[in-house]
Structures are given as structure tokens and as C-alpha cells.
Amino acid sequence: MHHRHVLPLAALLLCGSALGTTVSSASASPASSADTPQRPLRILLTNDDGYDAPGIRMLYDRLTAARHDVTIVAPLTNQSGAGTRISSAPTIGVRHPGPKVWAVDGSPSDAVDFGLSAVFTRQAPDLVVSGTNFGPNLAALATHSGTVGAAVTAVENGVPAVAVSTGGLEPPVPERILNAMRPTNDFAVRLVARLSDRAHGGPLLPRGVGLDVDHPVLGPDGSGTARGADLTTQDPHPVVKADYTDNGDGTWKVRVGVVDAPARPGTDVASVEAGRVSVSPITPGWNTTTADRRRTAGLLTGLRP
């Protein structure tokens, strides 16, 4: 395999956590006619960076400016890389710092479960939006992502969901990613309006399917607009790999990184590397293709317990 680089996973997943208390969210951009749907939606907004992270605050402002009824139900602390983990403790801490904000001391999936069970008690939200995440959720990163995990949890519960992330597999520059969140959110709001307008009062997405949206970082300061949007699949090649070194005292030093490879055509990585928005369908069931099932059937032919 050709390795272009090995990028520390912590840099991709955790670099936004230190910014949450130092960078205030941008004011909401004026809503255009393309942003405002015919039917404003009730939206549960979550993430994995924490309820007060810049990305979720920016997206809250933009969705609200587009006349949606938005409630934040998100983790109390940074939970990047939590995947679809669900807590098994008999109790969970929850704070309610504002009338439209709930902070759950657990994983992104815990936050979504709490929101659907305890906040949206009378009627499920029309849509769960998870993000905007600080950094990419491409290829193997999507598999382990708390941002995507939150969306998957919503889809498991029968609620349409969209996960939104900003960044590519290049070494992250925090200021550029923050600036890129603005065009990311513009695209996300337009996507939500499109889903709403085309649903004609019905479900926003097919049952059992969510969307994983990744926006590239473009331009000298990161605020450039993407060159278009593609329907993609998850690239199988960039993988998450851990290396362990024995410290000799019963502990091991761990270095986790993303081992990259040339992007396959039609995948999320190829799209973002071309400066385009990647939109990949996601499902909770890790669904396989018909060809996968046929190959597996051939392996099992004649096998007896």
C-alpha cells in the first residue's frame, strides 16, 4: 500500500476540544430563499465535540435563522471517537443550561437517546442533525465517529438524521477548519431545506437511512466554497491503525493514526480531496451488497454445524 502520510488520529478527532471555550460562535448568516424551507422543521441538534463547541453553536444559529425550531441535546464534554457507544450506568447526569439546550454527561448516542426519550416526549423530532464536527468523518473515521454514531442512533430509532463534518485527511489547521464551518453550515442548511421541500409532508429520508456529509477546507483561510456535491460511498482504504510500544512497567505507549492511501473514485475521500462535498448514505445495520452476500453464500455452501 502506498502511504501518503500517517496523520495522528488525535489531531483529527480532538483538536477542536481545546477551542470550545476560546472561540465564540459566529452570528447567524442571513437566511436566503434557498435556505428557508416551505415547512420549518423540529430539529434535535447534537454532536460529539460537546454542547458548547463552536461547530454546534454555529449550526444552531444558521438553522434557527432558517426558521427551524432547534433544540440542542448534546454531550456535556468532548466525546470525539465515541462511535455508537451507549452507557450502561443506572444513572446519567444531565444539565439544562438554557431553554433550548440540554447537556448529557455521556456519549453522543446517550444524548440522542435522552433527547428522543425525555425531551421530545410528545412527538419525535422531524430530523436529528449531528455537527458541525471539527474535523473529517471520512472512510474509517466515520466508522469510529461519535458524530456519525449519534446520527446512526437516531436512524435506529426511526428518526431521519444527518451527520455534518468539516475537513479532510490533510494535517488540520484549526483556524482554517473553523472558517470552513461557515460554508459547511450553509450547505447543511440548504440540504435540510431540500429534504423538507421534497418530502411533501412525509419522511425526510427513506426509513433506515441517514446521511454523512463532509465539507472540504478550501482557500487560504479555509472559507472557500466547495466546487459541488457528490453522492459517495465510504472509502475502504484509509484505515485507523494503532501502534503499541512496551514501556517496561506494565504500561504501553499508544500511537493511533490514520494510514492513508490513494482515494478510490466515487468515494467520500475522493470527493473531499477534489474540493467537493461528500454525501454518503449511512445505515445502522452495516448493510452488505448483493455481491457480498453471494460470495459469502459460496463460502458456506455445504457447511454443517
Describe the structure.
This protein is α/β, with parallel strands linked by helices. It is 29% helix and 23% strand. The chain contains 8 helices and 12 strands. It has helices spanning 9-14, 54-65, 108-119, 140-144, 146-156, 174-199, 268-273, 290-300; strands at residues 6-8, 42-46, 69-75, 94-98, 101-104, 127-134, 161-166, 210-215, 229-231, 239-246, 252-259, 277-282. A 9-stranded mixed beta sheet has the order 4-5-3-2-6-7-8-12-9, sandwiched between helices. Strands 1-11-10 form a 3-stranded antiparallel beta sheet. It is globular. It starts with 5 loop residues before the first strand and ends in a 5-residue tail after the last helix. Residues 1-6 and 11-28 have low confidence and may be disordered.
Task: Please give the structural blueprint.
Blueprint: E1 6-8, H1 9-14, E2 42-46, H2 54-65, E3 69-75, E4 94-98, E5 101-104, H3 108-119, E6 127-134, H4 140-144, H5 146-156, E7 161-166, H6 174-199, E8 210-215, E9 229-231, E10 239-246, E11 252-259, H7 268-273, E12 277-282, H8 290-300
Parallel strand pairs: 2-3, 2-6, 3-5, 6-7, 7-8, 9-12
Antiparallel strand pairs: 1-11, 4-5, 8-12, 10-11
